[in-house]
Amino acid sequence: MTGRWQLGLAGVLAAALLAGCGSSVKLDEGAPVSDRTGVPVGAAGAAGAGAAGNAIDPRGVNGVQAGAGQLGQPPQNLARVVYFDYDDFSVKSESMSTLEGHARFLNADRQRRVVLEGHTDERGGREYNLALGQKRADAVRRSLTLLGVTDGQIESVSFGKEKPANTGADEEAFRQNRRVELSYR
Fold first, then answer.
1. Which domain range does residue 97 map to?
2. Given pLDDT bands bounded at 50, 70 and 90, which one contains residue 39?
3. What are the tens digits of pLDDT across the range 152-167?
4. Are 151 and 130 in contact (CB under 8 A)?
5. Which CATH number characterizes residue 115's domain?
6. Rounded distance, CA 62 to CA 60, Å?
7. Residues 104-149: pLDDT tens digits?
8. How many other C-beta atoms are found inside a 10 Å radius of the C-beta of residue 173?
9. Which of 10, 98, 165, 167 is a good FRET partner for 63, with 20 to 30 A between their CA atoms?
């Protein structure tokens, strides 16, 4: 009788532990991605492309030197990190100009490939953070494909909390670790 009672208690404790590790973020839903600029997605890159691959954009987005780099080399004048809010995988509007530049760079040469590496801060369990990092990478992937990049040029992976950019345990370190890094191969 004591063995059954202990087994039942262990089951209840395991269920309570799993319920306590939950989050309000729904990881099974896609990240909301929208174009709020008023310019049709993909139109800005094609509208002002010059002979060297530079784009002149009426919204003030910097052009990209597409012909200057070798395969595997990232564009020189663009940030390669997209940051996220705590427990969230929505691409922020302030990241869109960076992603538009990367889309132009990738669209200028369809042989280029990018790996989107999703990361989280150290808070939360390993499995949860792996899933959240993947959702962040997939959200950036959706943004790039909406900007005309072919799906075959993009790979998205998650490192969860395993590769922090900053090993500190304060809010600034956490902010730096909630990211997707664009790595050209």
1. 40-62+77-184
2. very low
3. 999 999 999 999 999 9
4. no
5. 3.30.1330.60
6. 6
7. 999 999 999 999 999 999 999 999 999 999 999 999 999 999 999 9
8. 15
9. 165
Q: Is residue 93 part of a domain?
A: yes
Q: Is residue 19 part of a domain?
A: no
Instruction: List, as one string, the DSSP characters of 15-45.
Output: HHHHHHT--S--TTSPPP----SSSPTTHHH
Helix, strand or coil, per DSSP, at residue 130: helix
Rounded Cα–Cα distance for residues 183 and 81 (Å) = 9
Sign of the CA dihedral running 110, 38, 139, 91 = positive
Is residue 13, in this structure, part of any structural domain at all? Answer: no
> How many structural domains comprise the chain?
1
| Two structure tokens written together for 59 | 């919204």
CB contact set of 90 (below 8 Å; sequence gap of 6+): 31, 32, 84, 139
Entry pTM = 0.64
